[in-house]
Amino acid sequence: MADRLLRMKGIGKSFAGTRVLEGVDFDLHAGEVHILAGENGAGKSTLIKILAGVHADYEGTMEVGGQVCRFRSPRDAATHGISVIYQELSLIPSMRVSDNIFLGRERSTHAGWMRHGSQAKACAALMARLGLDVNPSRNVEDYPISVQQTIEIAKALAFDARIIVMDEPTSALTKPEAERLFAIIAELKANGCGIIYISHKMEEIYRIADRITVLRDGTHVGTATAADLPRAALIHWMVGRDIDEQFPRHAPHLGGVRLQVEDFTVPDPHGRPYPLVDRVSLRVRAGEILGIGGLEGSGASALLNGLFGAYGRILGGRVALDDFPCAVRSPQHALRHGMALLTNDRKTSGLVLSMGIAENITLASVPKYSPGGWFNHGREMETARRHERAFGIRAASLTQTVETLSGGNQQKVVLAKWLETAPRVLLLDEPTRGVDVGAKQEIYALMDRWTAEGIAILLITSEMPELLALSDRIIVMHRGRITAEMSREEATQEKVLEAAMGQRSGVEGVAGP
Amino acid sequence: MINRKTHTIRALLALPFTRALMALLIIVSLGMVFNADGAFFDWGTHRDMLRQVSVYGILACGMTLVIITGGIDLAVGSVLGLMAVTFSILSIRLGVPPAAAILLTLLLGALCGAVSGALVARFRMQPFIVTLAMMVFARGLAKFLSEGKKIPNYVVGPDGSYTEAVPFFRHLDTRILGGNLAVVTVIFFLCVFLSWLVLARLRPGRYIYAIGGNEEAARLSGVPVGWVKVLAYGMSGFFAAVAGICQAAQETQGDPEAGATYELTAIAIVVIGGTNLMGGRGSILLTLLGTLTIGYLEKILSINAVSEAGRLMLTGGIIIAAVLLQRSRK
Hints:
Low-confidence stretches of chain A: 508-513
Number of strands of chain B: 6
Largest interface: A-B, 26 and 24 residues
Mean pLDDT of chain A: 86
Low-confidence stretches of chain B: none
Strand order of the largest sheet of chain B: 1-6
Oligomer: heterodimer
Structural class of chain B: mainly alpha
Strand content of chain A: 15-25%
Number of strands of chain A: 20
CATH topology of the largest domain in chain A: Rossmann fold
Distance between the termini of chain B: 25 Å
CATH class of the largest domain in chain A: Alpha Beta
Radius of gyration of chain A: 25 Å
CATH architecture of chain B: Orthogonal Bundle
Helix content of chain A: 25-40%
Largest sheet of chain A: 6 strands, mixed
CATH architecture of the largest domain in chain A: 3-Layer(aba) Sandwich
Distance between the termini of chain A: 38 Å
Order of helices and strands of chain B: HHHHHHEEEHEEHHHHEHHH
Radius of gyration of chain B: 21 Å
CATH topology of chain B: ABC transporter involved in vitamin B12 uptake, BtuC
Shape of chain B: globular
Helix content of chain B: over 70%
CATH class of chain B: Mainly Alpha
Largest sheet of chain B: 2 strands, antiparallel
Number of domains of chain A: 3
């Protein structure tokens, strides 16, 4: 395997002052599958985006086929034979298969007349090579996701891509579909392509890997052949850090069972056969923080959104709040029952960026500030000032729009909004994402205080130390199911990560796959 | 110190209100230059401008509410026509007393808007499509009710003489304060005040801004998104009915063709004021400034005897200029 397709050396990258990659080395040979592994936020996507020409300003050098390159655009990268198959496919559903495959490189006569016949023929040949029964003149949307994914691979081949990146390609596939993908990968390898493969599934990694590179917190931990890196070592490479931050979690003041969930199921909104959340049962006591571990796509976020009624009425399962059955049918309804959901993306679903700080803080409790419909701006400002002090929100004025605030201050505004609703159950999805260290500490302290007041918290966080230190109990999810449940004392980074990658560790009441 | 001062001035200049005011002042100063032998300095000119622009301004009030939710209401012109006809039929043909006729017409106008709003909210249809359909439907209904003919405000006596049927039409199209202000202008200002109450002082206003700013965040915060949309479109229909009654009074008849393309003027007014078509940002005060800007523009062109062709072309150019001026902050 002397034929080296790609060599990245000392790659570094910052976003708005935050280092996300530091001195990362990565290379790829012809005919190999190179797994890129790491926890959420380890820097995998950023590295791939640099390779794909999405981020043009980075430090370090990149050689493709022995030539030093610096891609300025995705198109630039594509002409150098690099093709990235993202989780969200980049096909245009309403266009024909053949038009998708030749998009941006249409075959046409000199007069600009499209040569549909020639495209269709070339397309059919490609499909045959991939063992796919696809009609080039049908629309992409007529085919299931698994076939669309293969069409995307065909597109890469049509562009003579030699470096193919696959970002969790099996996350939406059934088992036989995944097997067919692996067969295609074997075929690509035999044809001299190099494949960079990102996966969170242990089983899959060892099924197809030639070599494995692990990133952690934006740095290169190591590269080894799959045979030389047993599972335990891989896990250790992925988590291997010490918990040295301070987490103020005092002894919990546990009350009665606040929230009880049985067989809760959230079907896939696009009608795929795999539900986002699959028969999950859990209970949380008043004053308790239940941590939910899991990697991207584990269904943890969908669980919180489902409980909050964000998908409308959920038919699968039962929910009880303080021993009263409660079939939540909308966020409005959930709020009335004393639930609050901090979503994992404050910009798209948490804040109204064009409104002021005070207006955002009272948004979920507007009726309280407009008795009889008449808005009481004075009372609103009073409340906003109270929260500004309690949360330590730093802003010039409470009427300034929240789009002008830093990430940490924005997050505090969202937290203040939900606390203002006086919740009994607080669903927190990544409460410290994109927040600086100081604000994180403040948010930890606030969470500790809220539980002391009897609020039950369900916490999702992709930061392992945070999960271990803040949670009184931890459940771990993988593909919509709970794969492990452990007490605060039992939990270790390794155990959580193993369960998050699909290894079941004898959970009570959880049936096998 | 100097730095801080320039900073404050810059911040002030970045405010949409300042920009809308500047656009208005530029137009007004153009009027002072091209004053048509002093005609621009005559109060009568301003009074007439206000009277002529009032119907557009009333429509723009409703349009502002809808646009802040992130939607659009193309039906206001047609609903205006339908309501002008409805009001005329009720009061002239059926002899319903003006007060009752007004009440009924306003209710029907609000209903037209509410239907659009309900379709947008319940079936998640695009506002453009829904209100386009309502625009066509309302125009058809207006023609059906009037049998395609204008409904004039007079009765022909046995001796062939024309006598006014309903004096209320004349009362609505008179001037008050010693002939210095048209009644329709007062109605326009009342509509502005009502919109201001809703947007700035009442609960639904907060919801309207929240939905336009981030519908998903609003929904997850328990905002009754559907009802608020029904309300916003309903109020747009209500204002279209107010405009329809005023239009009928000004024309002394119910014309089924009345209000065609008025929705475009209303949108232009809102946009020139600086309310964002993406929703979430804007205010009724901006729409007031936008109304005056459009009104003065038309007036200045007409007192200078610019042909209609030239007027239309200039108006098109000025809409683009005004929007560029609004946008130049980034």
